[in-house]
Records
---
Amino acid sequence: MKSAIRSIRSFQEIEFDSLPQKSLMIFDVDETLITPSDAILKPIAGNFKGWQKIPPEQFEHYISVVFANTTYALVDKATPAFLATLHRQEIPTIGLTACSTGCIGVIPSMALWRCDQLSKLGINFSFCFREEYIFSELLNTTAHPPLFKNGILFTGDLQHPEKSSKGLLLDAFLTRTTWKPEQIVFIDDNLMHLEAVQQILDQRKIPFRGYRMDNLSPVFNEKIADFQIETLLNTSKWIPDREVKILDQ
C-alpha cells in the first residue's frame, strides 16, 4: 500500500485549492481539532498509573466528572476560518472520532457532549449532512452504538484500543449514503487511524490524501495528576491544571 500520508502542524499546510469539488474532507476531533486543557487527558499521559486508584465499578462516574469539568481549546486557532473557507467552496466536511455515544456517569449523551465542545469553539459539521444514522449492522449495542450525528461519525463501542475502527465505520457510512467522492482527505493525529482509512479507500478505489497532525508534546506533571486523582476520589470534584498550579505556588 503506497503511503499518501504526511505530517503537518497547521491546516494552512494543506493544499485544498486543488481539491475536486466532489471531494470529502474528514477531521478527527481529539488532538486534531481540539485538545483538553488538562494534561492528564492528553496522549502523553496514556501510561499514567494514577487512574488505577479508581475502583473499576466507579470509573465511568469519575471519568465523566473529569470530562464535564475540563475545558478544551483549538489545536489550530485558524480552524473555524479554515472550515468556513471549505464551506464557501462547497467542499463537504465531516468529523470522525473514536468517542462513546451514550450515557457515561453524569453525562447523559457523550455524542451531544462532544458536539457541544466543538460548537463552543466555533466548529460545526451539521451544515453538510443533516441525516443521522445508527450503524447497528457493525455492532448491535444500545450502550454506545456507532452513529452519525450532527455531521460527525462516532465509533462508539466499535472502537478497539489496539486496532482502528475508523476505516470500518467510514466504509459503512459510504455504503449507507451510496456516495463515491472523487477524493477523500483525512486528518488525524494517530497514524493507525490514517492507515486504516487508507486501506478501506484503496479497496474502494477512492483517491486518498492523509495528514497526521503532529502536535508539540505538552509537559505532563505526574505530581499534579496524582493530586487531581486524590482530590477527585475524596471530593468527587475535578481541579483543572491551572488551579492546581495556583495552589502549588
Note: The mean pLDDT is 93.
---
Amino acid sequence: MAGMTFDEFYRGEYLPRHADKRCRAMHLLGLAASAAYLAVVLWSQVWWLVVFAPTPTYFIAWVGHWIVDNSPTFFEHPIWSFFAFWKMIVAVVTGGI
C-alpha cells in the first residue's frame, strides 16, 4: 500500500473483489439492514444499542464475500475500505457499476 493512492486501491484492489453482482448486492442489503436497525433503535430510544449499528452491514457484506469465495479488503486496509464501501454504494445506486 505504500505509495498507493486511494484511487489505485479502489480500482486495483477494492473493485475487483466486488466485481460479482451478488457481492455488491449483499453490501447494499447489509447497509439497508443497518438502516432498519437504526430506525428500531431510534424508535425504542435505547441509545446504547447504536454502537452495534455497523454489525448488520459488516456481517452481511462478509457473507457476500464468502458466497463469491473471496476475501474482504477490510482486514488489510480498514480505513480505505470504509471509504471505498461508500464510493461503491454510491456507484451501485446511481448506476455507475
Note: DSSP finds four helices and no strands in the chain.
---
Amino acid sequence: MNNRIANVKLLDNLLLQKNDHFERILMKDILFFKADADYCTVYTKLGRFDYAVELTKLEPQLPTNLFMRVHKNYVVHVNAISGFEGRFLYISENKIPVSKQYQDDVLKVFRSI
C-alpha cells in the first residue's frame, strides 16, 4: 500500500487505549472531547467514552481542519456544531462553553460552515 493511502486511513480514525486494549473511533463520529484532570471523555454519535489520557496529549493527534479548542476543557468537531450563541456552542443536545480567548476563532469557523 502506498504511503498516501496509509496516511488517509490513519487520519480518518483515532486509536485510544482503554485498560489493556485499544479502541478505534472514527473521526466523523466524534462530536467533542471534554477534559477532566488526567482523563478525557470522548462524546460520539454512539455515546460517551472515558479514556485515561489528557486532552493536551490527545489534541495534537487531531486534524486541525476538523477540530478546534474552544475552552481549556473542550475540543470540538467543527462539523458537529449545530448552533452558537454568546459564549456557548451547541452540539446535539450538549451546551459547550466557549472561553473569551477562543470566541473570535469560533465565530470565524461558525460563519464558514
Note: The beta strands are 13-18, 21-26, 30-36, 39-44, 47-51, 67-71, 74-77, 83-85, 88-91, 94-97.
